[in-house]
Amino acid sequence: MALPVTTDATPAAPVRSVSARHFVRLKLRVMGNNFRGQGWRIALFIGGALLGLWFAASGFFLFAAPGLTGNGEYAVLVAAAGGGLLVLGWLLLPLVFFGVDETLDPARFALLPLPRRTLVTGLFVAALISVPVLAVLIASSGLVLTAWSLGGWSAGLVSVVGVLGGLLLCVAASRAVTSAFATMLRSRRVRDLAAVLLAVTAALLGPLQIFGLAALREADWDRLAGVATVIGWTPLGAPWTAGIDVAQGRVWAAPVKLLITVAALGALLAWWSRSLESAMVGAASAGKAAVRSEVAGGAVAQLFPRVAGWARRDQFGALVAREARYWWRDARRRANLITIAVVGIFVPVMINVTGGDFAAMGEEGFTTAASDSSPVLVTISMLFVGVLAAVTLANQFGFDGSAYAANVVAGVSGRVELRARMTAFSLYVLPMLAVVGVVLSVLIGHPGWIGLTIGSLVATYGAGLAVNSLVSVLGAYSLPETSNPFAMNSGAGLTKGLLTLLAMLASAVAAVPMVVAAALLGDAWLWLALPVGAAYGLGAALLGAYLAGDVLDRRQPELLATVTPRR
């Protein structure tokens, strides 16, 4: 947006006020430019859109079930539980998996004379133009059908207002949380605290899930309906249940719940406004740096972080040092490491401790359920963790963006590049995988299975590195230049999801021999799993670097053009 230029001869032209429609037009223009000339990206976007619409149609019939059957007994339960899950999904999924669409990077508006209210309003309206928003709107429209069928047109109209309010609440919650968490991750003083809080939160979700599923198995649906009524008076369920209340004769409750929705929406937008301004200004101050009287080991040694201090002072070592430093300091990469640490401990413990039966866990207790674990079940759970750990590299060049040009100009060999990136990433991931293996073996009451757990993890992780190295070369996509580690360009969230699923599936297939060996070799595999798994993982990773390195050498210019963000 050009600013007026004044001269002595001609008066300044009046400045037109900026409104939300300008942001909408700008986003549509940027979205169109992103897909211009990228056939594979358009195909992925269309495929993701069709998948989202399929889920939307399924959600529509679930929400509309009480109205279609004419039985409104559990209408509040469906509305409160389904709507609450939608809000929680918009809160958590952008942090863990899909990211948040930030086609219009807020940082690019920092120098423009735009009031904060105009900026927040414009970005918020632009955020509503996306496939996920359309999918939620279609799915939640089933509540309108239910309310209309049970209570007539008045209940249906109230439900329309409630559904739209719930949709706005979902988008505002997602934006506020991701923006605030991004700001927090930029500060080095609180990054460790953030990791601890995430781990504690995930640890608390496990026991709650166990007891919740155990209670659900023997649930009294009438009692659950009472719980849903309580949820309906919280921001999670208030907008979705307002129309159902009118249909069931509780007309007085509808305006109160809509007021709760408006209050929650205003609080989230205010929170987002504050965190957004902080993100635009810049990174939080890390305090005064300590002054060193002398540089130990020389200036070159200071470029190598402690974790990579052993690396050779050559091209390979320099690449390892750079990547190791980026994985520790870059907020976007650090967010992925936190996800691996949390999910890597949570999932295998839940699978093996409960033996796949959460309700039985609640009835029989921790020790009994843990004793039912088997080497095959342990190997399968380790397979999931190893695959999850390696899939972070599926778009490793996207983290670099235009900075990858330095490697292209320097003529770095593809094999050296990929081996160095694998090594630097493994410096952080392998210790976490070792902790997961030891903790799980102790929790399930089989300390002698440490070799089995670690061997399975290393083998799967190595196979995942091989697969994701090739995926990162052939399926790379650009990431927005922003301080928000969860930001995605329009369509990139769908691209990330599909590529992630593809890479995880291929990595799991490559690690199947470990599961077969655990099933066929019995007790002998408990001793062979560690050396065989280590050799299998290392061999797979080196083979993947060798094959993908040749492809990288031929595609360096194309890869640089792909990962460079469009302005």
Task: Write up what this structure looks like.
The protein has helices spanning 20-34, 39-69, 75-96, 116-127, 131-186, 188-217, 221-231, 238-247, 253-281, 298-302, 315-329, 331-354, 358-364, 366-371, 375-390, 396-400, 405-410, 414-443, 450-474, 492-510, 512-521, 524-563; strands at 100-101, 487-488. The chain has 567 residues and is mainly alpha-helical. The protein has a two-stranded parallel sheet with strand order 1-2. α3 (75-96) runs antiparallel to α8 and α15 packs parallel to α19. The longest helix is centred in the first third of the chain and has 56 residues, at 131-186. Mean pLDDT is 76; it is low at 1-15, 283-297 and 356-371.
Question: What's the layout of helices and strands?
Answer:
Blueprint: H1 20-34, H2 39-69, H3 75-96, E1 100-101, H4 116-127, H5 131-186, H6 188-217, H7 221-231, H8 238-247, H9 253-281, H10 298-302, H11 315-329, H12 331-354, H13 358-364, H14 366-371, H15 375-390, H16 396-400, H17 405-410, H18 414-443, H19 450-474, E2 487-488, H20 492-510, H21 512-521, H22 524-563
Parallel strand pairs: 1-2
